[in-house]
Amino acid sequence: MASTSDIKNGMCINFNGQPYQIIEFLHVKPGKGAAFVRTKIKNLETGRVLDNTFPAGAKIETIDVENRQYQFLYNDGSEFHFMNTENYEQLTFAKDLINAPEFLVDGMMCYVLFHASENRAMAVELPRTVNLKVTYAEPAVKGNTSTNAMKTVTVEGGAQVQVPLFIKTDEEIVINTEDGSYKERAK
């Protein structure tokens, strides 16, 4: 058991009899009344995201999870297929159970969250950053901006990302999978 002071992003808890993962949280101390913790939690079985408020000091049941590395194989339209590279075990997941499915490309290594005591796969997490090749970028026209402007490019897998004007087609860029933002050119 943990209390609300132990809450952190990525923590897995048992809430209303189902496994949830904390996506974000905020400790609130109003001028009048008791403190509380406002959270966004994601159901690891359905992928549904809820807003929930816990009173300060409330007890929360944590879930022991294991991260195991799996390789993304392919998307058949409705499900995403992953394989353990050690024993070749394959798992399938719905799009809702993957934290950033638009950035998946064939062969990418990801982490599958397993419920430790039940040995049950629950969700897929991509690495915090991924390197993807730009497949299409509009050419930038020199001198048509007065501030640091951005443009939309298409990367491998079909996702669209806002990048600075100097990025060209066939360049490799680093993308933050948490918010889908451009970080830098890949080295």
Label this structure with key terms.
187 residues; mainly beta; 53% strand; OB fold (Dihydrolipoamide Acetyltransferase, E2P); six-stranded antiparallel β-sheet; 3 domains; SH3 type barrels; five-stranded antiparallel β-sheet; 16 strands; 0% helix
Can you give a write-up of this model?
This protein has a six-stranded antiparallel sheet, with no helix packed on it. The chain has a five-stranded antiparallel sheet with strand order 9-8-7-10-11, with no helix packed on it. A five-stranded antiparallel sheet has the order 14-13-12-15-16, with no helix packed on it. With 187 residues, the protein is mainly β. It has strands at residues 2-3, 12-15, 18-28, 36-43, 49-55, 59-62, 65-75, 79-83, 90-94, 109-115, 120-125, 129-137, 150-155, 160-164, 172-176, 181-185. It has no helices and 16 strands. A hairpin with a 5-residue loop joins β4 (36-43) and β5. The chain is flat, with a radius of gyration of 20 Å.
